[in-house]
């Protein structure tokens, strides 16, 4: 596939056009939501501010949980045929330099169900092309280069959006509007503002910075591990190395916003320090070259539980007439930073709740509440556990101790493999007795 070829989305609908659903944002969550709705026969309007193909700042890892949704959307076979790095494990590095490699389940790796790492330009374009085709076939419309300026709320319900395309104003309406436009999503802003609740909580938002490199030692193959390192000097943040194939590596650093403010941290400078000055990584990057103009920063809204959430966990992300998915719903894993899997899962949950006939005259607040309850029921154990691990990282001695034990104890390695691969297996990490027994005996 030519990743640089333009995607023809057809004509722009007339101003004032009505749809069964509007999706704001054409990334993985938005493309999946639009495709799922179109597969149900809905007339969908998909609005994307960029023009595909486009780059997306991210770590580029696609976890195993994403793949069942990718398969349901009908693009898993195409994804497997595109160039990608097959992930078979995760390397965690401690502040003292020790590393443990957690293998992903062999069977899942062989069946290509464990996870991939590939540039978002490829992955997102693949999903957007699929959504574009399905939406147009179902009688809907797709508009690239559309900037949403206002989300309309009437009598307590979102009724549609207004925006600009090629300097012209447009207003579209629908009983359901899905927000999938990332951490600055206008639909998320409208929902939280309508209910007087905060959209951004710096304790649960992460700043991140990413570059692409070639020639990094240990990253030459098309199959292997992705790496997350908790380095003395970077903690409470972390440094990652995610190969994406053909010798290209996604290299980045992330830190919670409140910690960045405390330390007055500049992520780009921090990453440069790691690459040039850290004894271990300076050797690996000695002959490496950064891909020009590949350095970009962005924010990750974590799905970690709030101590005193005003209403719903992790934050309010739905109301009458509107639902948010993915980053717009603050669903990024607070330990690994992975967000694609939860974006696709939330898109599936949201579209399953939408009934084309029942909700033709409006998407009720009761169903919006059902979405938020179902979403947290599905993700609470996983996100809560990841938040505990994120907090553990702040204590360098504890992280050194934990990874030191994991290096020596196969039982702990197997448990970590299960935790990464299976939501059901994460329950043992909530047991203090299990942790004490495994770590100390």
Question: Can you characterise this structure?
Answer:
- With 441 residues, the chain is an alpha+beta fold.
- It has three domains: 21-57 and 120-200 and 303-386, FAD/NAD(P)-binding domain (3-Layer(bba) Sandwich); 76-118 and 202-300, D-Amino Acid Oxidase, Chain A, domain 2 (2-Layer Sandwich); 409-440, no CATH class.
- It has helices at 28-39, 64-72, 76-81, 106-110, 120-137, 186-194, 257-263, 267-277, 279-284, 340-353, 365-393, 396-408, 410-421, 432-440, and strands spanning 21-24, 44-48, 61-63, 85-93, 99-103, 115-117, 141-144, 146-154, 157-165, 168-173, 176-179, 205-214, 223-229, 238-245, 248-256, 289-290, 296-301, 318-319, 322-324.
- The strands form three sheets. Strands 3, 4, 5, 6, 12, 13, 14, 15, 16 and 17 form a ten-stranded mixed sheet that branches. A six-stranded mixed sheet has the order 7-2-1-11-19-18, sandwiched between helices. A three-stranded antiparallel sheet has the order 8-9-10, with helices on one face.
- The radius of gyration is 22 Å and the shape is globular.
- Residues 422-430 and 432-437 have low confidence and may be disordered.
């Amino acid at each position: 596939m030519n990743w640089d070829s333009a995607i023809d989305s057809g004509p722009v609908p007339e101003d004032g056009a009505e749809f069964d659903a509007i999706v704001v944002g054409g990334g993985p969550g938005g493309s999946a939501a639009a495709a799922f709705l179109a597969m149900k026969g809905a007339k969908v309007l998909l609005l994307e501010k960029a023009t595909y193909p486009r780059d997306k700042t991210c770590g580029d890892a696609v976890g195993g949980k994403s793949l069942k949704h990718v398969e349901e959307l009908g693009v898993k076979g195409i994804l497997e045929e595109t160039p990608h790095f097959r992930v078979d494990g995760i390397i965690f590095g401690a502040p003292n330099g020790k590393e443990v490699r957690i293998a992903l389940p062999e069977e899942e790796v062989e069946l290509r169900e464990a996870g991939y790492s590939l540039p978002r330009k490829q992955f997102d374009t693949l999903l957007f092309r699929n959504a574009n085709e399905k939406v147009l076939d179902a009688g809907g419309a797709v508009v690239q280069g559309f900037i949403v300026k206002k989300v309309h709320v009437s009598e307590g319900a979102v009724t549609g959006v207004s925006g600009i395309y090629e300097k012209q104003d447009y207003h579209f309406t629908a009983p359901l509007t899905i927000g999938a436009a990332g951490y600055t999503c206008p639909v998320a802003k409208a929902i939280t503002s309508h209910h007087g609740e905060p959209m951004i909580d710096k304790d649960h938002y992460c700043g991140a910075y990413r570059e692409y490199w070639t020639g990094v030692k240990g990253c030459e193959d098309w199959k292997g591990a992705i790496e997350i390192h908790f380095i003395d000097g970077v903690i409470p943040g972390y440094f990652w190395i995610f190969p994406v194939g053909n010798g290209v590596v996604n290299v980045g650093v992330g830190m919670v916003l409140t910690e960045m403010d405390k330390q007055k941290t500049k992520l780009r400078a921090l990453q440069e320090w790691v690459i040039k000055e850290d004894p271990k990584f300076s050797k690996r990057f000695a002959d490496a070259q950064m891909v020009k103009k590949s350095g970009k920063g962005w924010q990750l809204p974590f799905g970690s539980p709030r101590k005193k959430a005003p209403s719903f966990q992790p934050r309010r992300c739905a109301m009458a007439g509107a639902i948010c998915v993915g980053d717009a719903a603050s669903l990024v894993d607070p330990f690994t930073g992975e967000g694609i899997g939860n974006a696709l899962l939330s898109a599936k949950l949201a579209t399953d709740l939408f009934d084309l006939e029942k909700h033709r005259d409006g998407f009720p607040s009761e169903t919006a509440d059902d979405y938020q309850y179902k979403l947290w029921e599905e993700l609470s154990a996983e996100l809560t556990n990841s938040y505990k691990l994120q907090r553990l990282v702040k204590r360098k001695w504890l992280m050194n101790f934990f990874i030191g034990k994991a290096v020596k104890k196969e039982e702990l390695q197997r448990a970590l493999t299960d935790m990464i691969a299976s939501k059901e297996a994460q329950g043992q990490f909530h047991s203090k007795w299990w942790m004490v027994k495994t770590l100390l005996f």
